[in-house]
Amino acid sequence: MAKGHRSQIKRDRNEQKDTRPSAKISYARVSVQKACFVLDAIRGKDVKTALGILAYNPRYASSIIEKLLKSAIANAENNNGMSTENLYIEECYANKGPTMKRIRPRAQGRAYRIEKRMSHITIVLNER
């Protein structure tokens, strides 16, 4: 149980809040493994380079992550007043989301399960 008055607990929680600009997409229809291939390519890069990599990457996840990165850049400019030239990708990761289970009919009355996986993708930026 937390100690102190309710307002003090909230004040302490808000002091520890992360102020780095970020963007998150939940329930993206791409598996974590496939999203991580693209995220590994842009991790640690500056924003301009990352957008170039994502624009020419043939994977489906790159279009989702490109839109997410543009959202994070807009958050940095509008909410934190940061300059685009100094931004780089500090963290980017994909967490496992729920899995949709589907049935595929097979021979002799059997049914095989198809798992359509989802992921939650997060991008955190910072200034150099």
Automatic annotation (TrEMBL):
Locate the compositionally biased regions of type Basic and acidic residues.
Answer: 9-21
Q: Which domain of life is it from?
A: Bacteria
The entry describes its oligomerization and partners as: Part of the 50S ribosomal subunit.
Q: What the protein does? A: The globular domain of the protein is located near the polypeptide exit tunnel on the outside of the subunit, while an extended beta-hairpin is found that lines the wall of the exit tunnel in the center of the 70S ribosome.
Q: Name one GO cellular component term.
A: cytosolic large ribosomal subunit
Originating organism: Schaedlerella arabinosiphila
Name the keywords, alphabetized: Ribonucleoprotein, Ribosomal protein, RNA-binding, rRNA-binding
Query: Biological process (GO) annotations?
Result: translation
Q: Which family does it belong to?
A: Belongs to the universal ribosomal protein uL22 family.
GO MF annotations in UniProt: rRNA binding; structural constituent of ribosome
Protein known as: Large ribosomal subunit protein uL22
Q: Which NCBIfam families match?
A: rplV_bact (TIGR01044)
Cite the residue spans of the region called Disordered.
Answer: 1-22
